[in-house]
Amino acid sequence: MTDSRRALPSIGLLLESAGVRALLETMPRDLVVSAVRDVVERARDNVAAAPMTTGAWSDAVATQVTQVTQVRRSSLRRVINATGIVLHTNLGRAPLSRAALDAVLRVGAGYTTLEYDLARGTRGSRYTHCASLLRELTGAEDALVVNNCAAALVLALNTLALGRDAVLSRGELVEIGGSFRVHEIMERSGARLREVGATNRTHLADYASAIDNGTGALLKVHRSNFALEGFVCDVDVRDLVPLARRHDLPIVHDLGSGLLISLASIGLDGEPTAREALNAGASVVVMSGDKLLGGPQAGIILGGIEYLSAMRSNPLARSYRVDKLTLAALEATLAVYREPDRALREIPALALLGASASELHSRATRTRNALNAAGIDATVIASTSSVGAGAFPQTELPSTAVALPGNADQWTSKLRSGDPAVVGRVRDGHALLDMRAVPDDEIDLLIERVIAAHD
To answer: For residues 396 and 386, is the Cβ–Cβ distance under 8 A?
Structure first.
């Protein structure tokens, strides 16, 4: 009886076959050779299988190369955001500006003054970086940067209300993305949550009646992703100030969104800026760096010198400190805000939010025309988009989308598997590519990826 394994082609013979030679022209040789060996080894183990043709061997090697390439591919990959959600938390929130990217490259390529004082020739502090710009832009007495807004809140409460009550309205017991709840974050700070009022109505008297010798701070939290309407009552920070002063208590305001300038000129109104929150009388304001501010992930703490000094001295601050790349990106982003009109143009998140109807329609038309020319019967339709990341939760932004023909699940799956991946959304059984968060310089790449997914 003849052993069928004797008929298996050699590694060298397969490498010389036309199909595998074509792979070698586009793929690393070690990857292709490894794939050939794996395919031959599997065939050797499966002696009962029918012999394969030359074309079948090439196809098997190509499939193996694809699988290995996907495994080797970085888990953190670039994505074209065609969901219509500008500050998409799952997709990394705000894209960085050119100024921020240049700063990261400049600082990351060598050594820096992260904790070195050039004037004195001695050790410095990373906490000084960005502080002067933040003071300038917000009017705060002092500023501190940590690694995210939740860390900023924990550090503030741990410093100001450790083992004491932090008084918070029940209408502000917010759950943010990933099932993280404000009151659970507060517990980790060592402060005790003291709930006051009802879900829909909280009065100044509720705060007043909750204050006693065990109170450490009054807390206000921006409502992320929802709004209260109807029979409601809320207490503004400005109204809390006399009460807080009477009892010598700080007011900590979790602003969340990180808005530095008014966006009324692009049709977005109702969110307080950091300066407005401080002017209202908050002792400490915490906010994100990667939401409406449009910078890297960071937590920004603003407020009185005595409060911020205490936070810097808190041993917990070390566990929340940021690295040189975050500080470089944030500093460059903040510098753009010295000219608000420039910020609206050059901070990508703000530019995407401010895109006009004609700009969005132009992007969609350009995409549709190219897809039609490639034999894909795409159409342009009206759409709605959103800000995202809990900012302006009631605002729907009119947008324009490209609808792809055929099976929506197949489209979305193929688009996600490409490089870069394309993430859109499905509505009424159609795969949609919303243009709100797709900048002009990504349109050609988007078209290329859709055509590749169709082939």
So the answer is: yes
d(CA 110, CA 125): 18
- Could you list the pLDDT tens digit for every one of the 455 residues in the chain? 445 556 688 888 888 888 888 888 888 888 888 888 988 888 887 765 556 776 788 888 888 877 777 766 777 889 999 999 999 999 999 999 999 999 999 999 999 999 999 999 999 999 999 999 999 999 999 999 999 999 999 999 999 999 999 999 999 888 776 667 888 888 889 999 999 999 899 999 999 999 999 999 999 998 766 677 788 899 999 999 999 999 999 999 999 888 999 999 999 988 899 999 999 999 999 999 999 999 999 999 999 999 999 999 999 999 999 999 999 999 999 999 999 999 999 999 999 999 999 999 999 999 999 999 999 999 999 999 999 988 888 889 999 999 999 999 999 999 998 889 999 999 999 999 999 999 999 999 999 999 999 97
Check residue 423 and give left, alpha or beta (phi > 0: left; psi -120 to 50: alpha). Answer: beta
Same domain, 301 and 324: yes
Q: What distance in Å separates the CA atoms of residue 54 and residue 9, rounded to the nearest whole number? A: 9
Cα 227 to Cα 233: distance, rounded to the nearest angstrom: 12
Secondary structure E strands in 357-448:
379-385, 397-404, 421-423, 425-427, 430-434
Cβ atoms 360, 399 nearer than 8 A:
yes
- For the entire predicted model, the pTM comes to 0.85
User: Is residue 385 within 8 Å of 85, Cβ to Cβ?
Assistant: yes
* Cα separations in angstroms, 126 against 104, 172, 323: 16, 33, 9
E strands, 153-242, where?
A: 165-169, 175-176, 180-181, 192-196, 215-221
How far is residue 261's CA from residue 293's CA, in Å, rounded to a whole number?
A: 9
Q: Which of 283, 322, 285 is nearest to 302 (CA)?
A: 285
Domain co-membership, 280 together with 374: no
The structural domain count of the chain equals: 3
DSSP string for 334-360: HHHTTSHHHHHHHSHHHHHHT--HHHH
Identify the domain containing residue 319 by its residue range. Answer: 96-346
| Claim to verify: residue 206 and residue 230 sit in the same structural domain | yes
Does the residue 1 lie in any domain? Answer: no
Q: What is the CATH number of the domain that holds 319?
A: 3.40.640.10
Structure tokens, 34: 């490894």
* Pairing state between β 430-434 and 397-404: antiparallel
